[in-house]
Design brief:
313 residues, mainly alpha, transmembrane helix, Tight adherence protein C, T2SS_GspF_dom, transmembrane, Receptor-associated Protein, cell membrane
Length: 313
């Protein structure tokens, strides 16, 4: 091959490489430019960002990840069609305190599945370097890892819900006592709620803050607490919200109700702790039987054994 065609091929390849680099840089600059929504929405927050039933686009803040946002959105739709259960996911997201839509959660499941697939593919590649590997088995393992990653994100959501509900139960007696003290001091239910929310922090305080925001937008107090009782997954909070709604509607004393509910929660927690300790009584004996007792026996009999060995003829 002569030198002239080689120069032509080299120039063509260099031109294609420069064109590809130019396209990548142009797309990256376009993705980093603030969108129209980002520039306008801070000034119209009270109008709402999305309409009912409208799906928001998936944005991650990274140009490289935003480049794959349409693909992730399509994959999230596919996961939703396969798994279903959107009402359950929406309810668990609300109970976990996560500000995400069902579609965004499905995209997270896809990302977890891709991570599992990548880990399995890396393991198969490393395994193939040392010994031969059946390609069908490797593909099957990668697909299983993909499914497990998707399901693991759903299980993690349930774990987040349980963790947050335990935190709510732990915070409830203190919040109820503070509300009772504020009401007993002469403040109304809304003013007492505002005082407690401003001076506390936690999962229950966030839920009460949402109730307070709904009341300030014009929703009746009883309706706001009834909605909290209907959406929460903690029976204690549901009874508390229902009791506050009834007390506001009928004018019954609220202080006694709050004190009684706080005492009931403390007693319930003490009873659950005793039951948990009784269930784990055998496990608590494991270190005593298998660690402390053998060491004690060894210290008791080892000197005598050594003495008998020294005095034996």
């Amino acid at each position: 091959m002569s030198a002239l065609p080689m120069a032509w091929w080299g120039g063509l390849l260099a031109g294609l490489a420069a064109l590809g680099l130019l396209l990548v840089v142009t797309r990256a600059v376009a993705l980093r430019r603030p969108s129209l929504e980002a520039r306008v929405l801070p000034y119209v927050r009270d109008l709402g960002t999305t309409s009912r039933g409208r799906r928001t686009p998936v944005t991650t803040g990274s140009p490289l990840r935003d480049l794959f946002a349409p693909t992730l959105s399509s994959a999230g739709d596919a996961v939703e069609r396969v798994l279903g259960g959107a009402p359950s996911v929406r309810r668990r997201l609300a109970r976990a305190g996560l500000d995400r839509t069902v579609h965004e959660f499905r995209v997270e499941q896809v990302i977890w599945g891709i991570a599992g697939f990548a880990l399995a593919a890396g393991w198969a590649l490393l395994w193939s370097w040392s010994r031969p590997l059946n390609p069908v088995s490797a593909v099957a393992v990668c697909l299983v890892a993909l499914v497990l990653g998707v399901l693991l994100r759903d299980h993690h959501l349930s774990t987040q819900v349980r963790r947050r509900e335990r935190a709510i139960v732990a915070e409830f007696p203190t919040i109820a006592e503070l509300l009772a003290l504020a009401v007993a001091a002469g403040e109304g239910p809304v003013a007492a709620l505002d005082r407690v929310v401003r001076r506390s922090g936690g999962a229950l305080s966030d839920d009460l803050g949402a109730v307070l925001a709904a009341i300030r937008t014009g929703e009746p107090v009883s309706d706001a607490f009834d909605r909290l009782a209907a959406t929460t997954g903690v029976p204690v909070v549901a009874r508390f919200a229902h009791g506050v709604a009834v007390a506001v509607d009928r004018g019954t004393p609220l202080t006694d109700v709050l004190h009684a509910q706080a005492a009931d929660v403390r007693e319930s927690g003490r009873r659950e702790l005793i039951e948990e300790a009784s269930r784990k009584e055998v496990l608590m004996m494991v270190p005593v039987v298998f660690l402390v007792l053998p060491v004690t026996v060894l210290f008791a009999f080892w000197p005598g054994w050594i003495g008998l060995s020294l005095t034996a003829p």
